[in-house]
């Protein structure tokens, strides 16, 4: 049955062979994974330019530095109002403007996503993100030096970007059951790292032509992918004539009555099932069809994982927004590398993150313990960050290896919680497996995480003036707190495994 809130996919009119029986359920599942992958990768590609241009906009390496002399260029003049002594503070405030509006918008986006056409809502978010990413870049050609302009653009852009995540997770949750969800979503969630890599390479590649281009091209990319999503994305299997795998299908009362009359031999059984469905619908009309914000918070596991993600995302987004700046301002083997090289080199962290997401998903599926897997990655990330800070400057190979390892361990739990865990919690048995609450639960978890994501880059901007050791200490403390929130759930998972073994 087709959801009343979802409009017909336009591409079905243009390409009738996309309909069953010409195309199977597996084909459409793969198509959905590809389209949502491209959609969120483009979101992240357009989110990456601010980190790439930081070293161009902000305070420069001192011109009297012998280490920097060979790498100073015309782009090392800075850009008011980010080039003064408190330039890193201003850059951190720009990150805060974007990420705070993103986190606030996430709660509202998830709430709306369970009530309206997810495909159109997603496309709306992609178009707005693309336009305002380009508007930020226009500041270069218009010679804008007003902090309020950049902050205002980032606030609006953050609101549009917040639409993306609840939508894509809800759509993928509609198409896939819980079997091997950790592995599937671990692979799928590499879109975050792939988007960061694309954004870094594109923004770094055109940086020498003016930092405005670093925003213009990723903005165009989001819009183009948005058009593709509008044409081809189906929100749920019912739109294509399939049943939802692993989900309870909501039945109309009229249809239930027809089934009861027609299937005479199983009349009593069908009547019981219909009465149960009607009772469930009447008791939860407001919560299952579109679960309330507070009701979603009270679901088991939602709050601990949300607060864990607060600290996990604080760490991940500090690297997302400040790693190219850190690489540019930290000599490797006694040499400061260029803006372009620093931006491209930072992609090693994202490559590690892609592997980390897949590995965390695979391990959590194998041991069937999401919290235990997350804590394992969090604990191992602490020595990884310490080693990167101490030994990352020794040589380029050492820097690359330790950056890859740090990305793998930092992004593993972040990826797992925002995908498989959110989908598990959003379709748990207390709601009858109903996926209508998935966008709301996803938004709560990622929205709470995004508050941490907003705080991390801001604190990094302030703490970096006191030395990078202070920044890394902040990250390690955040990791410890992230692990503490999952201890109780991890104990429960371990006890369940021990009891099963008896």
UniProtKB/TrEMBL annotation:
Family annotation (PANTHER family)? MAJOR FACILITATOR SUPERFAMILY TRANSPORTER 16, ISOFORM B, SUGAR PHOSPHATE EXCHANGER 3
The transmembrane segments are: 25-43, 120-142, 148-176, 188-207, 213-235, 302-323, 343-363, 375-394, 400-425, 437-459, 471-490
Known InterPro entries for this protein?
A: MFS (IPR011701), MFS_dom (IPR020846), MFS_trans_sf (IPR036259), Sugar_P_transporter (IPR000849)
Q: Name one GO molecular function term.
A: transmembrane transporter activity
Q: Which SUPFAM superfamilies match?
A: MFS general substrate transporter (SSF103473)
Gene3D superfamilies named among the record's database cross-references: MFS general substrate transporter like domains
Q: Which family does it belong to?
A: Belongs to the major facilitator superfamily. Organophosphate:Pi antiporter (OPA) (TC 2.A.1.4) family.
An example GO CC term for this entry is:
endoplasmic reticulum membrane
**Span of domain Major facilitator superfamily (MFS) profile:** 34-495
List the membrane topology term(s).
Multi-pass membrane protein
What subcellular compartments does it reside in? Membrane
Q: Which UniProt keywords apply?
A: Membrane, Sugar transport, Transmembrane, Transmembrane helix, Transport
User: Could you tell me the Gene Ontology terms of the biological process aspect for this record?
Assistant: phosphate ion homeostasis
Q: Name one Pfam family in it.
A: MFS_1
Query: Which domain of life does the UniProt lineage start with?
Result: Eukaryota
User: Know the name of this protein?
Assistant: Glycerol-3-phosphate transporter
């Amino acid at each position: 049955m087709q959801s009343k809130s979802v409009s017909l996919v336009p591409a079905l009119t243009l390409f009738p062979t996309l309909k069953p029986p010409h195309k199977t359920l597996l084909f459409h599942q793969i198509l959905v994974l590809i389209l949502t992958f491209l959609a969120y990768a483009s979101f992240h590609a357009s989110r990456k330019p601010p980190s790439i241009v930081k070293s161009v906009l902000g305070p420069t390496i001192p011109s009297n530095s012998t280490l920097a002399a060979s790498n100073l260029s015309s782009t090392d003049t800075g850009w008011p109002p980010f080039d003064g002594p408190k330039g890193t503070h201003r850059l951190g405030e720009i990150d805060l403007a974007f990420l705070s509006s993103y986190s606030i918008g996430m709660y509202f986006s998830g709430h709306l996503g369970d009530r309206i056409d997810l495909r159109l809502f997603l496309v709306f978010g992609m178009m707005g993100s693309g336009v305002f990413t380009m508007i930020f870049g226009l500041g270069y050609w218009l010679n804008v030096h007003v902090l309020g302009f950049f902050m205002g653009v980032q606030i609006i852009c953050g609101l549009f970007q917040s639409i993306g995540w609840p939508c894509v997770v809800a759509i993928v949750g509609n198409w896939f059951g819980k079997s091997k969800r950790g592995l599937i979503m671990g692979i799928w969630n590499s879109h975050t790292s792939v988007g960061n890599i694309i954004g870094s390479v594109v923004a770094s590649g055109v940086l020498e032509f003016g930092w405005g281009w670093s925003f213009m091209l990723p903005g165009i990319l989001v819009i183009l992918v948005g058009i593709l999503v509008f044409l081809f994305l189906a929100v749920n299997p019912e739109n294509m004539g399939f049943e939802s795998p692993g989900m309870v299908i909501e039945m109309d009362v009229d249809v239930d009555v027809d089934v009861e009359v027609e299937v005479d031999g199983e009349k009593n059984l069908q009547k019981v099932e219909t009465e149960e469905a009607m009772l469930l619908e009447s008791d939860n009309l407001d919560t299952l069809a579109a679960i309330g914000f507070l009701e979603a918070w009270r679901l088991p596991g939602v709050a601990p994982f949300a607060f864990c993600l607060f600290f996990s995302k604080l760490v991940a987004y500090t690297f997302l927004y400040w790693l190219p700046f850190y690489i540019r301002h930290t000599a490797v083997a006694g040499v400061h590398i260029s803006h372009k090289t620093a931006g491209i080199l930072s992609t090693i962290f994202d490559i590690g993150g892609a592997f980390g997401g897949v590995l965390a998903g695979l391990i959590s599926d194998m041991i069937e313990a999401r919290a235990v897997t997350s804590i394992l990655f969090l604990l191992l990330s602490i020595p990884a960050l310490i080693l990167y800070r101490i030994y990352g400057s020794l040589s380029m190979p050492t820097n690359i290896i330790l950056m890859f390892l740090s990305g793998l361990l930092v992004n593993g739990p972040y990826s797992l919680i925002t995908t498989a865990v959110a989908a598990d919690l959003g379709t748990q048995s207390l709601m009858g497996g109903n996926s209508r609450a998935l966008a709301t639960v996803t938004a709560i978890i990622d929205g709470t995480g995004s508050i941490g994501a907003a705080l991390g880059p801001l604190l990094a901007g302030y703490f970096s003036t006191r030395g990078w050791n202070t920044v890394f200490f902040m990250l390690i403390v955040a990791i410890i707190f992230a692990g503490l929130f999952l201890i109780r759930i991890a104990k429960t998972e371990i006890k369940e495994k021990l009891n099963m073994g008896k």
